[in-house]
Design a protein that fits this description.
Order of helices and strands: HEEHEEEEEEEEEEEEEEHEEEEEH
Largest sheet: 7 strands, antiparallel
Shape: elongated
Low-confidence stretches: 57-63
Radius of gyration: 29 Å
Distance between the termini: 23 Å
Number of strands: 21
Strand content: 25-35%
Helix content: 25-40%
Amino acid sequence: MWRGLYTAASGMVTEMYRTDNVANNLSNANTTGFKRAQVAVKEFAPMLLHRINDKDAKTTDVTKIKQFSVNPEIGPVVGILGRGSDVAEIATDYTQGSLMSTGNPLDLAISGEGYFSIQARNGDITYTRDGNFYRSNDGTLVNVNGEAVLDTRGRSITIPAEYTTVVVGPEGRISGSIDGVNNAEIAQLQFVAFDNPREQLEKIGNNQQYRARADINPVPATGSIQQGMLERANTNVVDEMVEMIASYRAYEANSKAVVTQDSLLDKAVNEVGRGT
């Protein structure tokens, strides 16, 4: 009975993690460039049970009828006992989100593989697919957190105030002009990708940003940049709600198992253990 309590409780803890993850996916359904996460569940190693004090196969007629395997050394095999579940991994789903037109020339969306490079406030270089950029008071191209967007040389990008038109090409080349004349190249975005983002990137939050793990260097991106558009989150609200309902039901089933086990323990201690 104690083992049953632990098994059911582990299932409740797993479903708590799953529910929290679904809630986070839903809360970011409108976050630009957000990539939903999935909870991977694993089973604790099951246990093989044998009947004890029953090594004489000749006296175990019931086991012969039920076709249980009998080992004369350790007794008849009862079966496999599960020992609960645990969270193996919270993995990020990197599938492409849909693109939404905004008409803002500094809104940039990535179609395919790729990330923008950002200079974080602490000096680290982070990566994001959120291309909701702005021109600060001094002309620096920044994200919504006020962090500088980097060019191919790892420097911040400054867009002069006199440029009334800004054009960003598919490879990240930024050019500007005054009233449509004297077009001049300003900079090129540091547009990179990773061979295995699931293993090489670490999600750090902060408006959907990532940090490369130690000794990992990005490679040139294979995707293209779409100006005047933003990438929506790849969260499907209906699917997330269905998963949340299933998680609640699994949690409820495990909680009822805990109540049942507790009731049996109560009877074992207060009624059976009391004797006559």
